[in-house]
Amino acid sequence: VDTAKGANGVNGTNGTSNGVLNGEFDHGTQVIDENKEFTQTMPDYLSATHVLQAGFAYHLISVFGSQSTGKSTLLNHLFNTSFPVMSENKRQQTTKGIWMSLATDPDASSDPNKPHMASNILVMDVEGTDGRERGEDQDFERKSALFALATSEVLIVNIWEHQVGLYQGANMGLLKTVFEVNLQLFQKDKSTVHRSLLFFVIRDHIGHTPLENLKNTLMADLNNIWHGLSKPPGLETSRISDFFDFAFTTLPHKLLQPDQFKLETQRLKLRFREETPLNAKQTADGVLDTAETGVFLPAYHRRIPADGLPHYAGNIWRMITENKDLDLPTQQELLAQYRCDEISTACVELFDEIITPFESALNQKVVQENLGPSMKQALDVAISKFTEEAGRYHKGVYKRKLEDLQKKLQARLMVLFVAQLTAAHKNAVAIFADTIQKGIKRTGADFASLVTETRAAVLTDFIAEAQACSLDGMFVYTDELKAVEKELDERATRLRGEEMARLLTRMEKSLRTKFSSEDDGVAYMFKTISPTLYPRVWTLFTESVNSQVSVFTQRSTALNATEQENEQAVYNLKKRAWRVLRSILDEETKEQSLITRLMGYFDKDFRYDEHGVPRVWKAGEDIEGIFAKSKETVLKLIPELAIFKLEEEKAPPLAEFIGEAPVGVEEAAAAEEEDDEEDVTSPASAKTFTILTPGRITSLTESFNRQADQAFVDAKRGT
Ligand code: GDP
Ligand code: MG
């Protein structure tokens, strides 16, 4: 049966007596066919009549009675159904197997305030059971009784007045069967008490015998039957009222008193109203108190959710036909397992609709937008559907299946959550590093607050994302948060280190520029070689370095450097500064440039007179004397340059100026000294203050002598 057919089956205005359905469901649906097979039409029928989604809000009743006693006629009058009825002139069986139809109440739709029948009453019309057509088919009678008992709240027993008191009558045989199969059911199921109502409708009531008397007669017969049954162990002393309630009513002859009949069925209809336990009064022997008591006591309901009814009924029928022991609690559990699985699958489909796109896009590098709310929504949708639909089934099974479903969905969400955290983590670190690098370039300034603000901002974003995906704390992210914080701090330290290193390099460069300036630097000072040269250079050195150090300290504070980092950097800066100075001094004292300078001094004395006028040597002038004096003056300058020292031969306080190596810096400092050259910043090293080694002094002196001698020779020649 396709769905289109099912949908077309619904038609509220087609004029069938049912008023709801047409086509294949004109007469309801055949649950058990004439071959005693369970048909598969019930789901479509329940769906077309909208009972499938009713949960527990439906009722199921069955009618029993001898063949051709007007059962179908009664049902059609009571419930506005259209079960086939035997025509008055040919007596043969019309109802084959078991039919089911939904009751409708025209009164309910015309005026909701008028008293009316309960909604969603499913009525089962059971094939006549006196075996006229089927022969002595006790087997089917037994099976259909068992089936009806396992499913129905109310069993209507249709009986003619003149049959009352006929203990051997066909109906009494039927009731004996009902009681027997009931005991059979309860043998397996002693824990739960399934009550049912046997509702006797006494037909063709002439009126001579009051209902009360008929009732007493029937109850006496029923008790007789009950006493006569051999009861299974444990139920020997049980009473009929342990399992059944009884209600009785009479109806006039339909053909002889048609108007009366109509009136009475309309009245009877109202007993099939929604009933509460409080309204119903029962006598001690299980007979419902007044004639007008409602018949649907909650205790009768089999608690099979409507959407599980087809499967349950099918299973029950299968167990019955296979002659297996019918164990209702087990059946309910099996049903629960089956339905919970079905519902679970449907829930996973809903979940998939929302989650699969995210799973396909799963990527640990990209933060997926809207993931958190979607995870929450998907889980909510799936779980609430399951809770609502599966929650009506066997509690133990439901709980287990709910846990299974939750675990399954959570496992899938967990994968997304973890990937999202990883991506958010990477994102946070990337944005952090990027923002800070840009920030340094833009302002070059307050690194400390830049780090603090950026850190707070990216962490806020991270936490927001993690929180959104945490399903209200179901998933935790504290470890990942710690890892992000740690990495941010490491990044900050590294960025600060890089920034400090850049700063140091800049400062070193600017010191080099300052030291090598021709205007006021070392080169300028070297123009006048004198005992005050090195003291002046030292002053230049210490003043320049100190001013750079104070600039640096300011900057490194802004970088949020630790005391130790700052000390280390200052220490390094001072050492580097000295190396720079030393390299410039080495440059200035290279042999060629030094010779040029010395020759300049020499020339000033030898080639020019005291007025700065070039000498023109004449014969007889004291060339030798002037030469010797000039040479001597210059040669005295060389030792002045040899050692870097302050006034009165004092060594410069370089070690004090650089200061002690900060704790823990030895290694770092050692690392800086990678080249195996001797450390020129260590006062212990001979090289630190030695600008000219004795060897260089000798070669310098020789070189100078050669050039000076040449000047002498030239002068001599000139005369
Ligand atoms: P079922 O086999 O029990 O379902 O009986 P039907 O509803 O098909 O009716 C069988 C015959 O009994 C039909 O010919 C009806 O007209 C007739 N019938 C229906 N209602 C009554 C009634 O109240 N009294 C009597 N005597 N006959 C009835
Ligand atoms: Mg019938």
List the helices and strands and how they pair.
Blueprint: H1 3-8, E1 29-32, H2 42-48, E2 59-65, H3 71-79, E3 98-102, H4 106-110, E4 121-126, H5 138-151, E5 154-160, H6 170-188, E6 196-203, H7 211-228, E7 244-250, H8 258-269, H9 309-321, H10 328-360, H11 371-390, H12 395-443, H13 447-468, H14 478-515, H15 522-525, H16 533-558, H17 563-588, H18 591-606, H19 623-642, H20 654-658, H21 666-672, H22 694-718
Helix pairs in contact: 3-8, 5-6, 5-9, 6-7, 9-10, 10-11, 10-12, 11-12, 12-13, 12-14, 13-14, 14-16, 14-17, 16-17, 18-19, 18-22, 19-22
Bound molecules: guanosine-5'-diphosphate (GDP) and magnesium ion (MG).
Magnesium ion binds at residues 71-72, 94-95, 125.
Protein name: Dynamin-like GTPase that mediates homotypic ER fusion
Domain GB1/RHD3-type G: 55-313
Membrane topology: Multi-pass membrane protein
Task: Tell me what you see in this structure.
With about 725 residues, the chain is an alpha/beta fold. The chain folds into 4 domains: about 20-325, Rossmann fold, CATH 3.40.50; about 335-475, no CATH class; about 475-590, no CATH class; about 590-650 and about 690-719, no CATH class. The chain contains 22 helices and 7 strands. It has helices spanning about 5-10, 40-50, 70-80, 105-110, 140-150, 170-190, 210-230, 260-270, 310-320, 330-360, 370-390, 395-445, 445-470, 480-515, 520-525, 535-560, 565-590, 590-605, 625-640, 655-660, 665-670, 695-719, and strands spanning about 30, 60-65, 100, 120-125, 155-160, 195-205, 245-250. A 7-stranded mixed β-sheet has the order 1-3-4-2-5-6-7, sandwiched between helices. The protein is rod-shaped. The protein starts with a helix and ends with a helix. Residues about 1-20 have low confidence and may be disordered. It binds guanosine-5'-diphosphate and magnesium ion. Magnesium ion (MG) binds near residues 71, 72, 94, 95 and 125. One of its GO terms (molecular function) is GTP binding.
